[in-house]
Specification:
The complex is a heterodimer.
Chain A (H helix, E strand, L loop, with lengths): L2 H21 L1 H4 L1 H17 L1 H4 L1 E2 L2 E2 H32 L2 H6 L4 H27 L10 H25 L3 H17 L12 H7 L3 H14 L7 H25 L6
Chain B lengths: L4 E9 L5 E10 L4 E5 L6 H8 L7 E6 L2 E2 L4 H6 L1 E4 L11 H11 L4 H14 L15 H13 L5 E5 L7 H16 L3 E5 L3 H7 L2 E6 L2 E7 H6 L3 E8 L13 E6 L2 E7 L5 H9 L4 E6 L3 H10 L2
Parallel strand pairs in B: 3-8, 3-9, 6-7, 7-8
Antiparallel strand pairs in B: 1-2, 1-4, 4-5, 9-10, 11-13, 11-14, 12-13
Helix pairs in contact in B: 3-4, 3-5
The chains are: A mainly alpha, B alpha/beta.
Chain lengths: 258, 303
């Protein structure tokens, strides 16, 4: 197919994905708003005031970038994994496989949908946070780059998850047992600089730590123990590797073709 | 002009070791109405799966209108429309969206997609349902929706895998009328069905596949000539006596007004009619005991 036809195919997949999560907004956009709203109330009004400052910022301000990233991670992943798996389950993915759409267009269409949901939930969480803190943006470019790379990375992860999934349980296992612990231990609620040496060193192998702190730097100008160039290098490399793996699996027809 | 479909030495062995296709060869001419028949598990769906890129072949060559699926897959796919056996559209999308989305996958711009969608949904009697969520459609309507979706990019080769399974008689007839029109307009049609009388009436050429091998590949006319015996039921107006006998014919009295007769293809029925007439018995109607193609099919696929 030519460039124009590929573009139409990409837009078709992307628009269908966005319309899907907008149509079921009570399942996709409302829950992160409620969850993060509760975090803000609890950490802002109940606990936050007793903690004092972290990294030189009052606790509520410190925790906002982490909560934004937490919603981006879970929603980018969930959008692609649940949408692609349910298309597999319903067999409607066959519509795509029979058509001449190149695999890289299928992949980018789904990933763009996941990234869009991740960014929309981020906007919702940021708007909510404005009720609790005077939010600032230290460096817009770094902020956007960090959030987009994170959304890309986890949307790709969700895609691979969906390719391997054989049941709806398989779609929820990784978010529950891998993503959530890594997110909670990735410096969302605290600066790893306050941890003992051993735990601080262990935290360095958690990829989410780099994303949270790169984004926190973009918003607050504070990245804790994380070197920004290392953080962005890791993010870019991970996105490239995940994209290559996803495309390879798609070309092989993993979980799709017998 | 290149053949609509050329299959050479196509093999498929699944991961569990099951050899679904054992090196089949098949050619379908452009404009043909072709029947691919076989019992369950014979390899029909595997063949269709490989042609439509849903199943990876183990070895062999498949060309669609001269485009090889290994090195010109995009061009090959553009020639092909598939109506699968199972409903495989997004059940939560509206009828029109299912069709327009499929058009988008083929790079058809929105305006043209909407125009074609209207054309095919109207032709298939679904236009009034265009805003209905597709899961709310009846089984027959869902089948028609899959045909509309398969035609949206106006393929030159249309594969219909059991399109009338579970469809009532009226709808089945209207579907066949529609498919025949499509075929007359130049689209090559490959059909799999369990309703063998449909295949006999509509298809010009036929392949029978059994246990991964093509056991017959010929014209429908040639195939039916192979049938050497046929059985008929005769409905007789007058009551037939218990001991009635007819010279030269194997006749069984089914009930007082029905006879079953088996004849070979050189024998003809005139002699029997004459004998019945001599006994003052009027034949009011006559029908085949079973479909002619069915007789051959059962013989060829018997295990």
């Amino acid at each position: 197919m030519g460039i124009q036809k590929n573009w139409i195919a990409f837009c078709t997949i992307y628009i269908r994905e966005v319309r899907r999560f907008l149509r079921i907004w009570p399942q996709t956009l409302l829950p992160p708003a409620i969850t993060m709203g509760l975090y803000f109330v609890i950490f802002g009004n109940v606990i936050g005031s007793r903690i004092g400052t972290m990294g030189g910022f009052d606790y509520m301000t410190f925790v906002v970038p982490g909560l934004v990233m937490m919603s981006v991670v879970t929603n980018s992943w969930a959008n692609v994994s649940s949408s692609f798996y349910s298309n597999k389950f319903q067999k409607s993915v066959e519509e795509l496989l029979v058509s001449p759409v190149p695999n890289w267009i299928i992949l980018t269409g789904y990933i763009a949908g996941g990234v869009t949901r991740g960014l929309m939930t981020a906007i919702i969480v940021i708007i909510l946070s404005l009720f609790f803190v005077d939010l600032q943006v230290f460096h817009l470019g770094i902020t956007l780059l960090a959030i987009i790379l994170t959304a890309l990375m986890f949307a790709l992860g969700g895609f691979i998850n969906a390719l391997f999934a054989k049941s709806f349980d398989d779609v929820s296992i990784i978010p529950t047992f891998v993503l959530t612990p890594l997110t909670y231990l990735g410096g969302v609620f605290y600066s790893v600089s306050v941890l003992p040496d051993f735990w601080r060193a262990l935290s360095q192998v958690n990829p989410i730590l780099y994303q949270v702190n790169a984004f926190r730097y973009g918003m607050l100008g504070y990245s804790g123990v994380v070197d920004l160039s290392v953080a962005f290098s890791i993010m870019v490399m991970t996105v490239v590797v995940l994209f290559t793996v996803s495309l390879h699996l798609l070309n092989k027809g993993k979980g799709l073709r017998s | 002009m290149a053949d609509a479909l050329t299959i050479r030495n196509l093999r498929k062995t699944y991961d569990n070791g099951h050899e679904a296709l054992k090196g089949i060869d098949l050619t379908v001419a452009p404009g043909d109405f072709f029947a691919l028949l076989g019992p369950n598990g014979a390899g029909k769906s595997t063949t269709i799966g490989i042609i439509s890129s849903l199943v990876n072949k183990t070895s062999g060559h498949v060309d669609i209108f001269g485009h090889n699926i290994d090195n010109a897959l995009v061009k090959a796919k553009c020639q092909l429309g598939v109506v699968p056996q199972e409903f495989n559209f997004n059940q939560f999308e509206k009828v029109e969206d299912v069709v327009i989305t499929q058009a988008g996958y083929y790079g058809i711009p929105g305006k043209e997609a909407r125009k074609r969608s209207e054309k095919y949904l109207k032709q298939l009697g679904l236009w009034e349902k265009r805003s209905t969520q597709s899961r709310m459609l009846s089984g027959g309507m869902k089948r028609r929706l899959m045909i509309a979706r398969a035609l949206i990019h106006e393929p030159r080769l249309l594969i219909l895998d059991e399109p009338t399974a579970g469809v009532d008689i009226e709808l089945r007839r209207s579907l066949w009328d529609f498919v025949q029109q499509i075929n007359e307009a130049g689209t090559t049609v490959i059909l799999t069905t369990h309703y063998l009388e449909e295949a006999e009436q509509m298809c010009r050429n036929i392949a029978i596949i059994n246990e991964g091998d093509i056991v017959e590949n010929t014209s429908m006319k040639e195939l039916l000539l192979k049938l050497d015996r046929e059985s008929f039921f005769l409905d007789v107006k007058q009551s037939v006596p218990d001991q009635a006998a007819f010279t030269g014919y194997a006749v069984r009295r089914v009930d007082a007004h029905t006879l079953e007769v088996e004849v070979n293809k050189t024998q003809g029925l005139n002699g029997l009619f004459r004998q019945l007439s001599d006994c003052d018995m009027d034949v009011v109607s006559m029908r085949n005991k079973s479909n002619r193609l069915e007789e051959l099919f059962v013989g060829m696929t018997k295990r």
